[in-house]
Design brief:
Elements (H helix, E strand, L loop, with lengths): L9 H53 L12 H13 L4 E6 L10 E2 L5 E2 L7 E5 L4 E6 L2 H5 L10 E6 L13 E6 L4 E3 L34 H7 L20
Antiparallel strand pairs: 1-4, 2-3, 4-5, 5-6, 6-7, 7-8
Length: 248
């Protein structure tokens, strides 16, 4: 029986491969970005679970944070105490205390493109066993009194860079903040968490988590990522806690 099938010519094969290559070049970056964002969500939720558990154990051992500080302690001393009390119940690979290292010392970016730094001897730093860089900023008594909010006094800020020293080193992309209260640690940007001090009264989502112009340094994305499990605020600007939760 005669076979009437016709083979592809070399030119046709090359054209087909070219088309496949073009399609791949257009779709692969988006696929890779989506996978990276999923990895960020997973890492951030893992850290939140770990730091919350450590805080619970620290409260059982040392009491609530209002018992951790002496009134005349410096900010550096307060940061160190918070870090020491938490790391006792965490798996860490390195503790830099108030010295440089453990946390990227270069320029960070906000989602709206501004530059800033997390540095200074007043901060404590450590690295978790899975490579996340942590910075602790313990507040002085005066600062705490100026940061009383709907949940009570704020005792410290906790900053996590989920991929360590690697780029992009941008708040809302790989770097996120948490707030230590008297009885819990919460992610920045919770809709019911409104700080009463005038300079931070609008530090909520989406005012302080967008790519156009943030009300502060764009640190209010953390709660969105944890509870909605996406970074879609990077791709569309009509998201809200009361309405649309993703770009689809």
């Amino acid at each position: 029986m005669k076979n009437n099938y016709k083979a592809f010519t070399l030119a046709e094969v090359l054209i087909a491969l070219g088309i496949i290559g073009i399609v791949a070049s257009l779709t692969l970056p988006a696929i890779i970005q989506k996978q990276n964002e999923k990895a960020t969500v997973t890492a951030l939720k893992k850290f939140y679970s770990s730091i919350s558990q450590a805080f619970t154990f620290a409260n059982l051992e040392y009491g609530t944070p209002d018992n951790w500080y002496a009134i005349d302690m410096t900010q550096a001393e307060r940061s160190m105490i918070v870090a020491d009390n938490l790391t006792k119940f965490m798996k860490i690979s390195k503790n830099c205390h108030n010295n440089s290292g453990c946390f990227y010392d270069g320029t960070f970016k906000s989602l709206d493109g501004r530059n800033f730094h997390f540095n200074g001897k007043e901060h404590a730093r450590f690295v978790t066993s899975d490579g996340m860089s942590i910075l602790i900023n313990g507040f002085t008594t005066t600062e705490m009194q100026g940061k009383e909010d709907s949940f009570g006094h704020v005792y410290a800020d906790i900053i996590v860079d989920v991929n360590g020293y690697k780029k992009p080193n941008t708040l809302g992309k790989d770097t996120f903040s948490f707030i230590m209260l008297r009885d819990k640690i919460i992610p920045s940007g919770l809709p019911e968490h409104i700080i009463t001090s005038s300079e931070e009264s609008v530090s909520t989502f989406p005012d302080d988590c967008n790519t156009r112009k943030c009300s502060d340094i764009c640190e209010s994305c953390t709660a969105w990522v944890i509870y909605n499990e996406n970074l879609d605020y990077l791709h569309c600007d009509d998201l809200s806690w009361q309405g649309k939760k993703n770009c689809k």
